[in-house]
Recover the amino acids of this structure.
């Protein structure tokens, strides 16, 4: 891609080196630890599923039984129980749901357990590779039928069966990506509910059965519309890797996946979630799932003009974390947003500068561009105009994943017609100016080029500061999103576990080998 | 003074509407839309636009004129319960101006109740339904202790951080467990001679101001309450106390 901003490659390189240096110590910590949800995710990859009469999921039952022994890896005991009971994975799940204590069984020969685990890894990898192959085949079959950028909408009824109707309608109206937003505060549950759900608050529970139901509904539309529809959910919060595991098994295509978001906006403990993030990203990488990072949220608390550099800095960090988990750039949906005050004189130029800058610095990443939310009011007419400007900026700067703004943002979860009007607006704007980006160059010393230069420079300075103090202390000091989070507080810290000398996790070993880590 | 909506002539009663019907787009759908608007009481109904949202849904834009009117002079606006509700920015400004220090708020979902939904909606940065939580208020210092916090522990923590206000959230109300728990909290405070030291609020979907006050709290926040309501209540009470003492 030809640069329109003439950004200094040396400064970009400098920022990447700083990001590598900043992320390094965090990754060192991560590699020595596991968590309750990493263990539960591993069990899920092995086939652990179902729940007991009280609704406690089987993976939680197993991990709860292993208090004090988690450093060995929960899979060791699960596989041991499988060998000892001699049945199938489904049989074992039923026994555990019925009260079997896997911790009570004497451990068998390690070699036998390794061989049994290898079978489970084989079943898992076949299933996920088949999912990947199916996605790739459909995308090839319907090549060129998706919009560019991908038009992304959210459904949020709370009832998975109602969600499928809304999602199908949105796909028929032209949406390329459908995200099922989760029920309020699911991110703070330290378990993933089991089965289909019909009640949620402001969203729908992420469960494996709900994933399957929505995937099946969208697959029908894929054939009817001749366009691959990507399904998105949220591998974030306290069950990051478990949701990633479920998504890999049920062929989701995108996952919100960013521990910085959880730390800052959900008060999740940073040690816990950095460990969770790495394993979840490894699963996503293997499953070919595009991650979406949450930098856009910084601008809902901080000023989008003043703190633009925190977004770019976080993109550099997220890129490094993603590489470390085996994600190639084409799966890095780095986030940013169109959140400047609409009354700002020439604000649109600054928005274009930010978006074009991200595009040029991360040329292969399908950048996830978020619509205006902070300055949306009940004035739906102005809201529609702001969304048009956002659509224009996105197409002009070649963004990858375009989350559609709703004219009723800040009023209610979208009506069916709100979603239609958003899609209609985006298609109108993007069609009428399709070739404009190719016609335009920016003045070398103009407002846009200078703004991008300035933000990049501020980013390098900011990354230097963080490199000086360390990423975790920087978060403690409130340098991101103006929010302070102490390292030893926040939710989920008690679920952190140092790996023991005999830590057993053939799924992690498999993923590392497969991803070249 | 009798008034009607204004299009371009006084008293023309012109109104624009847009809505969706669960039927396919077409002549029958448009007639359904026109009849619907007529049934709302509009005259001279004009369905100016229709479009299919999907095979079974269609959207309409319609205009109509109404003879319905209201007597503007006779309207009385009931004061909202309590004083004016500050926006987040106003709340921060009032704290800076009138109190001149950070206000410390401690919150928790107490007893065996494991639901953080309520306390998080009020306290978490992200807030709820586009109403930012107390954590986002720069002039507030907040501590959200989460769920299943014993009453004793919540009080200890409030003493430790020298809190101005304590928020008690209760979501589970089966067998009135919330009432027992909320009562125990107040009794503990009184037993330790701390009741007057804090502003104490209760919140939850089934907890109204009336119930909370009856149980000895300063205020209660039920359905439809957001962070700004709680912040306003705390700030106004603190200012009140400052002027009294």
């Amino acid at each position: 891609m030809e640069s329109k901003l003439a950004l200094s490659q040396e400064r970009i390189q400098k920022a990447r080196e700083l990001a590598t240096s900043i992320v390094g110590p965090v990754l060192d910590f991560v590699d020595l630890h596991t968590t309750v949800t990493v263990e539960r995710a591993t069990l899920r990859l092995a086939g652990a599923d179902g729940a007991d009469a009280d609704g406690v999921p089987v993976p939680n039952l197993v991990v709860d039984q292993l208090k004090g022994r988690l450093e060995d890896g929960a899979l060791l005991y699960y596989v041991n129980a499988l060998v000892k009971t001699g049945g199938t994975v489904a049989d074992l799940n039923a026994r555990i749901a019925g009260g079997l204590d896997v911790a009570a069984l004497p451990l068998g020969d390690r070699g036998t357990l390794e061989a049994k685990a290898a079978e489970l890894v084989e079943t898992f990898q076949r299933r996920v590779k088949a999912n990947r192959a199916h996605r790739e085949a459909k995308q090839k079959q319907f090549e060129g039928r998706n919009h560019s950028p991908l038009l992304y909408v959210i459904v949020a009824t709370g009832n998975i069966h109602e969600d499928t109707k809304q999602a199908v309608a949105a796909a028929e109206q032209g949406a390329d990506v459908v995200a099922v937003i989760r029920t309020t505060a699911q991110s703070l549950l330290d378990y993933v509910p089991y089965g289909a759900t019909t009640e949620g608050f402001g969203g729908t529970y992420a469960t494996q059965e709900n994933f399957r139901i929505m995937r099946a509904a969208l697959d029908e539309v894929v054939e009817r519309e001749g366009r691959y529809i990507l399904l998105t959910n949220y591998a974030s919060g306290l069950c990051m890797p478990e949701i990633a595991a479920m998504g890999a098994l049920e062929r989701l295509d995108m996952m919100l996946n960013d521990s910085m978001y959880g730390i800052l906006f959900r008060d999740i403990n940073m040690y816990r979630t950095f460990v969770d993030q790495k394993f979840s990203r490894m699963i996503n990488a293997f499953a070919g799932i595009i991650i979406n990072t949450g930098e856009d949220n910084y601008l809902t608390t901080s000023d989008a003009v003043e703190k633009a550099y925190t977004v770019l800095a976080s993109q550099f960090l997220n890129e490094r974390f993603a590489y470390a988990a085996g994600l190639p750039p084409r799966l890095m949906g780095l986030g940013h947003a169109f959140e400047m005050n609409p009354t700002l004189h020439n604000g649109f130029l600054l928005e274009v500068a930010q978006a074009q800058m991200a595009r040029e610095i991360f040329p292969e990443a399908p950048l996830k561009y978020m619509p205006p939310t902070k300055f949306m009011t009940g004035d739906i007419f102005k809201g529609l105009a702001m969304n048009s400007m956002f659509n224009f900026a996105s197409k002009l700067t070649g963004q990858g994943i375009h989350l559609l703004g709703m004219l009723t943002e800040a009023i209610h979860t979208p009506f069916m017609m709100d979603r239609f009007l958003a899609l209609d607006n985006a298609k109108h704007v993007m069609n009428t100016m399709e070739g404009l980006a190719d016609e335009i160059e920016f003045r070398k010393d103009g407002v846009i080029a200078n703004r991008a230069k300035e933000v990049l420079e501020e980013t390098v300075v900011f990354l230097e500061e963080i490199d000086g103090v360390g990423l975790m202390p920087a978060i403690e000091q409130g340098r991101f999103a103006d929010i302070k989070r102490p390292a030893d507080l926040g939710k989920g810290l008690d679920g952190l576990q140092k790996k023991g000398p005999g830590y057993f996790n053939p799924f992690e070993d498999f993923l590392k080998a497969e991803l070249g880590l | 003074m009798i008034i009607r909506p204004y299009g371009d002539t006084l008293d023309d009663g012109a109104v624009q509407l847009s809505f969706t019907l669960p039927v396919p787009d077409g002549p029958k759908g448009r007639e359904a839309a026109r009849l619907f608007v007529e049934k709302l009481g509009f005259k001279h109904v004009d369905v100016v636009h229709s479009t299919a949202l999907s095979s079974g849904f269609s959207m309409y834009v319609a205009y109509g004129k109404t003879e319905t009117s209201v007597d503007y002079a006779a309207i009385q606006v009931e004061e909202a319960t309590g004083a004016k509700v500050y926006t987040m920015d106003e709340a921060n400004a009032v704290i800076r101006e009138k109190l001149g220090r950070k206000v410390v708020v401690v919150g928790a979902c107490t007893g065996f109740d494991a639901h953080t939904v309520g306390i998080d909606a009020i306290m978490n940065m992200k807030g709820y339904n586009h109403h930012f939580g107390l954590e986002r208020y720069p002039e507030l210092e907040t501590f959200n202790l989460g769920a299943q916090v014993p009453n004793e522990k919540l009080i200890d923590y409030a003493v430790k951080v020298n809190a101005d206000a304590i928020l008690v959230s209760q979501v589970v109300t089966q067998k009135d467990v919330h009432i027992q728990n909320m009562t125990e909290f107040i009794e503990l405070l009184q037993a330790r001679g701390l009741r007057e030291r804090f502003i104490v609020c209760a919140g939850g979907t089934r907890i109204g101001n009336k119930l909370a006050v009856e149980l000895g709290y300063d205020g209660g926040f039920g359905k439809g309450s957001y962070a700004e309501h709680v912040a306003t209540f705390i700030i106004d009470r603190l200012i009140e106390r400052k002027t009294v003492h």
Summary: Residues 146-448 of chain A form a domain with the TIM Barrel fold (CATH 3.20.20.440). The CA atoms of residues 127 and 249 of chain A lie 7 Å apart. Chain A touches chain B through 23 residues (CB under 8 Å).
